[in-house]
Amino acid sequence: MNKITGGKAVKSPGLLSLIITILFAGLIIFAGAAEPSGPGDFTSNQFSKSGICSNCHGSSFGEWAGSMHSLADSDFFYNAMLQEYGVAAEAQGLSPEFCSRCHTPIGVVSSEIPPLDGSHLSEVSKEGVQCDFCHVVAESEGIGNAPYILEPGSVKWGNREDAESPSHETEGHEFYDDSAYCGMCHNIYHPVNNLTLAATYTEWEESPYAENGVNCQACHMTPGIVKFEKNPGKAASSGPKREHVYTHHFVGANAFVTGEMGEGRHEKRAIEYLQNAAKLEVNASDSAEPDENVEVEVKITNVGAGHKIPTGVTEEREMWLELTVSDSEGKELYHSGALDSKGGIDPEATVYHTVFADTDGKPTVKVWEAASIFSDNRIGPKESVIEKHSFIMPENASNPISTKAVLHYRSASQVHIDELFGEGTYDVPVIDMATYPEEEEKSSTPGFGMLGAVVALSLGSVFRRIKK
C-alpha cells in the first residue's frame, strides 16, 4: 500500500546523474518499505481500553462486547488449543506469537506474549480484537497471518473522511471499506510450510459476491442476516445522523463459545446466520413396492454465505446431512447421519469440512502438525452438492413414504471437546441449518437473489455517498 510519487524529468541526465538518481530512489524505497508491527514495537499503555470508547460510541461498544472479537483472547476452546500449540512450539522451534497475533494483537506488539498462558497480559491486551487496535491499523502488508501496521496515538482511523471528534483526531481510509482489512486475519498459513490452514478471505475473493462488489462488511457489519441492510443512525453520540452506520457484532457461526460464555445475543445471531446460509431440495418418491430399490437425492446449496460452508478453522467444524425416511405409520425405513451416544457422527454420513494430514499422512486437528490437505469437500458460495442415498423397501412397509432431511452444524466435534476438557464438561450444540420439508418460512430470503444483485452492484456507491 506504500506509494511513491515522482515528478517529471525536465532533461536527460548524464550517466553520473542517472546513477545518483537510481541510488537515491533505491534509498527512498528502502526507507519507505514498511514492516508489519511486531513484538516490542509498542507498549500496551499506548492503547486505550474499549470502555473509554463507549463514552461516545455506546452502540458500537455494546455490539462488540460479547462478540467473538471481544472473546478472542478469553475463548476457552482457543486457549486449550493454544496451550497444546505452546508445547509443540517450544519443542519444534515454532513462533510463540503465531496464534496470538490475531487473538491478542496488543499483547504481541507489546511483548506480553510469550508466555502463552496470559500471565503477562495487561488488561487492554486481554480485550482481544478491541476498539483501539482496530482503529489504529494504518495499513497492511498483505493477506493472512496478521500483517497489520499499527500507528497508536491520538489519530483514530475509520471509513469516513468527514468524521470529527472532540476526543481524538480522525483519519478516513478506504481500507476500512475493503475486505482485505478482514483478510489480514481471516486467512491463515502454516508458519513453517506455508500450507493454507484457513482461507475465508480467498474463498470470498473467488466468489460471485466479490465479483458483484459485495464486501465482507456488507454481511458481517450490518443488521441484516447474511444480506446487506442499511443501518441509519449515529456512529458517535455527538456525530451527525448517517445514512448507514456499520454494526460491530462481527457475527459468524460460533454459537458454541458465545453460548457457553453467557453471550446469548451473539449466540442467537450466530444461529440466525447459520439458518440462512443453506437450502435443501429433495428428490424422492412417495411410494414404492416391496423389495424395490428406493433412491433419494438431496441437493445442498450454499445460498447465503460469501465463503465456503463451513469456513474458518474447518478442521474443527462439522456440517453433515441427516436423512430419515418413514412409512405411513411412522416406521423408520432408512436413517443416515444420526449421532451415537457419545456424540459421534454416523461413519457412513458425509461430513463437510477440511481434513489435514501430518507428515505421516495421518489425519490431525492440530494445525501445527499439518503438512498437507487430506480432503476438503466444503461447499462454495452459490454452489451445490448432491448426496445420493438408497434403500430397499421392506415387505411390511406401507405407502405413502415420507422423507425428512436436516443439515446440521457444530463448531467442533464432541469427541475432540471431550478429549480436551473431559466428558460431560461441554455439550457442543448441534444447529439445524436447513430442513426439508421446511418447518416454516424464514422472515427473509436467504442470500441476495436478484434484488441482492442490484444492492451488491450499488454497495460501493452507497459507501462512497456515506463518506461524503
Automatic annotation (TrEMBL):
Keyword Transmembrane helix assigned: yes
Domain of life of the source: Archaea
One Pfam family cited in the UniProt record for this chain: Cytochrome_C554
Matches recorded under Gene3D superfamilies: Flavocytochrome C3, Chain A (1.10.1130.10)
The keyword Transmembrane helix is assigned to this record: yes
Keywords: Membrane, Transmembrane, Transmembrane helix
Membrane-spanning ranges: 12-34
InterPro entries per UniProt: Cyt_c-552/4, Multihaem_cyt_sf
Protein name according to UniProt: Cytochrome c-552/4 domain-containing protein
